[in-house]
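thread from #wetlab-drylab

HS: before we spend reagent money on co-crystallization trials with protoporphyrin IX containing FE, can we at least see a predicted complex? here's what I'd submit
DV: go for it
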Amino acid sequence: MQEVRSWSAPTRGLHALMLFMFIVMYTLAELMDWTHGASKHEVVEIHKSIGVLIFFLALLRLSWNLTHRGPEPIGTPQQAKLAKGVHHLLYLLMLVIPLSGYVMSMLHGKSVDIFGWCTLPSLIAANPAFKEWSENIHSALATTLLIVAGGHAAMALYHHFVLKDVTLRRMFKG
Ligand code: HEM
Ligand code: HEM
C-alpha cells in the first residue's frame, strides 16, 4: 500500500477551525463566571449553539477521516499506537461533551436553541435532583479534554522543535 504523506485539506481545515472553536468555548465558559442576568444568559446561549455545531463538525470530520486515510504517526510502533489512541479519545470527547451539555440543559428544563435557527427537542423531563450531577460530569469531561488536548499539542510541538520532523507541518501547512 502506498504511504500517505500529508493530511487532506478538509482534515487540516476542520482541525484548525475546531481548535479555534474550542478556544472560544472555554473562553465563553470562563465568561459565564464573570457575567450575570441577561448577559450570562446570552453567553450560555452562544456556548450551547457553538457546542452543538462542534458535535456535527466532529461527526463530519470523523466520517471524512474514515473514508480518506491520513498519514501514519511518526515514531516507533508503540508511539504510533499511543498517538492514534489519543486521537480516538479526542474524537470520543468531541462527541460526548456536547451530548453531556444537551442532557444537562434538558435536566435543567432549559431549551437548546441553535443561533435562533432551530430548537433541539427535549427528550428528558427536567429533574432538579440530577442538576448538580450533570453539571459536574460536563465540567469533568471538559477538563479531561483540556488535559488530553494539551498533551496532544505538547507532543506535536515536541516533534516540531525537538525531533524536527514533519508532524506539525503536515497538519498545519500541508
Ligand atoms: C463542545 C464542547 C463543549 C465544551 C468544551 C464545553 C465546556 C464547558 C465548560 C468548561 C463549562 C463550565 C463548567 C464549570 O464552570 O464548571 C460549561 C458549562 C456549561 N455548558 Fe458546556 N461545553 C461544550 C458544549 C456544550 C453544549 C453542546 C451544551 C448544551 C447544549 C453546553 C451547555 C453548558 C451549560 C448549560 C453550562 C453551564 C452554564 C451555567 O453555569 O449555568 N455545553 N461548558
Ligand atoms: C495547539 C493545539 C493543537 C496542535 C498543535 C495539534 C497538532 C496536531 C498534529 C500535528 C496532528 C497530526 C499528527 C500526525 O500527523 O501524526 C494532529 C492530529 C489530530 N488532532 Fe490535533 N492539535 C491541536 C489541538 C487539537 C484539538 C483541540 C483537538 C480536538 C479536540 C485535536 C484533535 C486531533 C485529531 C482527532 C487528530 C487526528 C487527525 C484528525 O482526525 O483530524 N487537536 N493534531
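DV: The helical segments are 9-34, 37-67, 77-107, 131-161, 167-172.
HS: ok that's useful, forwarding to the group
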